[in-house]
Amino acid sequence: MNKLEVKNVGKSFDGKPVLRNVSVELNRGELVCLLGVSGGGKTTLFNIISGLLTPDEGQVLLDGRDITNQPGNVSYMLQKDLLLPYRTIEDNAALPLLLKGVKKKQARLQVSPMFSQFGLDGTQKKYPSQLSGGMRQRAALLRTYMFSKDVALLDEPFSALDTITKSSMHKWYLDVMEKIQLSTLFITHDIDEAILISDRLYLLSGSPGEITGEIVIKEPKPRREDFNLTAEFMEYKRKILSLL
Amino acid sequence: MLRRNIPSVTAVAALLIIWQTVSATGLIPSFMLPSPKEVIIAFVSEFPSLLENSVITLQEAFIGLFLGVSVGFCVAVLMDTFEVLYKAFYPLLVITQTIPSVAIAPLLVLWFGYEMLPKIVLIVISTFFPVTVGLLDGFRSADKDTIGLLRSMGANRTQIFRYIKFPSALPQLFSGLKIAAAYSVVGAVISEWLGGFGGLGVYMTRVKKAFAFDKMFAVIFLISAISLALMALVGFAEKKCMPYRNISEKEKNK
């Protein structure tokens, strides 16, 4: 069954259409990329899914339940980590639980076993300013995960990181996803990144933004070390470029 | 720490030495400017009286500061919550600050008498403004994306205030508090000066009338010291409330 489904969503701002008839499906445990140029309505779509924006038409379903215009169901993570600088990593990660009314002590207890899974051991009592960019993104993902255990929306989460950190974050992310059975909708404008990590990807392009193609990456996971150097990889890339 | 303070300590010491020499050599007669030594002697001999009056002044300052900060906090929260209130009252707030406190203090005496009330009212008027303005700026500096993120997690207004807006405003709140702390002592002294039965301001009017400038200087230094101590107290609370700031500063200094 579909974990998350976006059905025929359309949205205009001041009469200018930004999204038209966008439909996206995300299955359980799947990583789906939404690939498109910057300013192509990707972030608008994310705000609609997370309930911060009301679509003009269409709906958003989570486990078959209508969550259109309802914040508090799925959370997201952005390029900016948005960690609260005045809270320790532990308390940042526990924030979603605190918002749900869990007591502070209890919340910390629930968060603490996740630190090793997310490769964040030893950072519990540190403040965000003491961590590197990559580690901060891990902490931000942990916070997202503490909010909704099975779906994550990621909006260009690694695009501010340098190439080397980025590629180690990809490995880390796929590893974590497998461990915690996360379904992910991942926005990116980086074609290589999309092919490298996704099971399936949608191309969002044009103005207003429309889904112009859907590609399944058949390469099994975990992916080969040199997958991005293979002919198949280049073939995917060629196909994407022709569709964008 | 010590090394950083060397220039300022040297400057103060030099100033004191010059002052002492100028007075001791009779360049300026002592009824016009008492020497530091005379000021110290006056301070020691007048200590019981100074202490008694400081207690009154400090009491007024503390009550006024507490009320002023509370009022400032409430006004800031209301003005942040309701945009209409912000637009309606912000200019008025600024105007209240352009009225010199020496001008309203006698009026307050007229309305509220010679007891503690007019002093406290004056302190509230002069301390709530820096707190309100600091908090309002702080609330507005809260990161919009972070607020959006918390909303997506289902946070309500109170939670957004508690987890984002208030902590984001802490640095500005403390800047405002430091100013308010200094104002509170000065405000107390001014209103005592302009009408009252006790306190350092009243003491000042007495020694002024007696032309006892050594005592006058002693009380001036005492008031400065009290203001500085209050500001240091706020600074200490600031460090305690925002441990994360010290960390980033320490790492920057490495």
Give a short synopsis of this structure.
The complex is a heterodimer of chains A (244) and B (254). Chain A is 34% helix and 26% strand.
List descriptors.
heterodimer, A: 244 residues, alpha/beta, Rossmann fold, 2 domains, six-stranded mixed beta sheet, four-stranded antiparallel beta sheet, 10 strands, globular, B: 254 residues, mainly alpha, MetI-like fold, 11 helices
Within CATH, the superfamily of the largest domain in chain A carries the name P-loop containing nucleotide triphosphate hydrolases
Order of helices and strands of chain B: HHHHHHHHHHH
Low-confidence blocks of residues of chain B: none
Look up the CATH topology of the domain at 41-131 and 169-242 in chain B.
MetI-like fold
Largest sheet: number of strands, sense, barrel closure of chain A: 6 strands, mixed
Quaternary class: heterodimer
Separation, N- and C-terminal Cα atoms of chain A: 29 Å
- How would you describe the shape of chain B? globular
CATH domain class name of the largest domain in chain A: Alpha Beta
Count of DSSP-assigned helices of chain B = 11
How many E strands of chain B? 0
Terminal CA distance of chain B = 15 Å
> What's the average pLDDT of chain B?
89
For the residues shown, what is the average pLDDT of chain A? 88
CATH class of the domain at 41-131 and 169-242 in chain B, named Mainly Alpha
As a whole number of angstroms, the C-alpha radius of gyration of chain B is 22 Å
H-E order of chain A: EEEHEEEHHHHHEHEHEEH
State the CATH superfamily name of the domain at 41-131 and 169-242 in chain B.
Answer: MetI-like
Secondary structure: helix percent of chain A: 25-40%
Number of separate helices of chain A: 9
Largest sheet of chain B: none
